[in-house]
C-alpha cells in the first residue's frame, strides 16, 4: 500500500489531476514497498521572458534547491535507493550547479550573437533563437540531477519543457516544478507528465515538440532518436556505455584501486559512465587484486539514512533480476574467475532483506569476448582484463560499439594525454573518475549518444541560429539590368 499522497501532473503553473484515470506505483528499492501512486497524461504550453529575467528566475531556483537540499535528497533516497550520504552531497547539488551555471551564462550575455562587417556598407549579424516546446525524458538513476541538466539549458535558452521522469523514480518532478514556479517561472514553461514508454513515444512524435532530450539505454535511445529525427526534430541522446579504465604500469596502486572502485561501485554501479572494463598490466595482477579485496569491506550496504552507508540496493525488481542474471552468466557461462561478490544478497538488517540488494562483484581473468565484458550491466560488477602493452590495452579498449567514457591512471602525464587522445570516448578522465562539473560538456561517441549536455556547448543544443545580412548601400546589385 502506498505511503505517500498520489503524484499528479504539473502544468500551467500548478498541480492538476489527470483525466486519463491511469496510475502506476513507485517503489522503495531498499524494502520493496510502494511509496506513492502516480497519475499519467500530457499537456503543452508556451511563453518566454527575456534572458536577464530568465537568469534571475534560474538563480533563485538554484538557491531554493540548495536551501531544500536535504529534504529533496531524502525523497531521492527513498525513490531510487541511493544512500543519503550520496544524494545529500551529489544529486541535488550538482543539478543546482548546472542551473546556476546557465543562469550566469545567459545573464552575462552568453546568448548574444555575432556581428561581422562585410564591407563598408554591409554587415551580417546572427541571433540565437529558442526552439520552442521541448521534451525531456529522464532516467531513473539520477532523477533530479538529470531533470536539472535538461531543464536548465532548455529554460535558459528560452524554450519551454514538457518533462517526463522515469516511471521508476518520479517523485522529484513535481517538487522541481513547484520550485521553478516559486522562483518566478511563468505558468506553462516547465510541465511534468508521468507514464512509461508510451508517454515518451507520444512526446517524441508530437508535432508541437521541436526537440527531444533523452537519457537512457542505447536500444531505447535509438528508437527515440529515429522517431524524432525522422520528423526533423532536434535531439540530444545521452545513452549507455561499457567504458574502459586503463591502469598503466607506473600508476600509483592506491589511486588505481580507488579509481576502479569509484568507477564500478558508486551509486551501486548504476551510472552510465562507469568504467566497468578495468585494464590492468599483467605485472600488477597480484598486487591489484590483493588491494581490491582489502578495500571491498569499505563498500558498506545498510540502512540508507545511516551515515556509515555508502552502497544502496538496485533501483527495481526488474533491474535486480537483470543484474543477477549477468552475474550468474559470468560465473556459469563466461567462466570468469569470481574474485568477490556473487548472486547472493549482502548481509543487511532484517527489515531490508526484501529489497533489491546485491553484493559488489569483481570478476578477474576476463577476456574481451565474454558477455559480462561486452554488454552494459548497469550494476556493481567489475571486469578485470590483463594486458601486456599499453598499445594493446588501447586497441582492446576501443573494440566496442559504445564510446561514452574512458580514463587512464599513470604518473606520466605525457603518456596520459597520448592514451586519452587515442581512446574513442566523449568523456575522459586522467587519474580520477566520474566527476562531471557544470563547466564540462559531456556526451558520448559512437552508439553512446548524440550531442552534449552542460558547458558552453551544452546550451547550443537548445537554440537555432538566424543569420541576417544588412545592405546599406541604397542600391540593389542585380544582373537584370538594361544592356
Automatic annotation (TrEMBL):
Enumerate the PROSITE patterns for this protein: ALDEHYDE_DEHYDR_CYS (PS00070), ALDEHYDE_DEHYDR_GLU (PS00687)
Task: Tell me where in this chain the Aldehyde dehydrogenase domain is found.
Answer: 50-467
Top-rank taxon of the source lineage equals Eukaryota
Q: Which species is the source of this protein?
A: Penicillium chermesinum
Q: Does the keyword Oxidoreductase apply?
A: yes
The record ties this protein, via InterPro entries, to: Ald_DH/histidinol_DH, Ald_DH_C, Ald_DH_CS_CYS, Ald_DH_CS_GLU, Ald_DH_N, Aldehyde_DH_dom
Q: Which PANTHER family match?
A: ALDEHYDE DEHYDROGENASE-RELATED
Report the protein name in the record.
aldehyde dehydrogenase (NAD(+))
Q: List UniProt keywords, sorted A-Z.
A: Metal-binding, NAD, Oxidoreductase
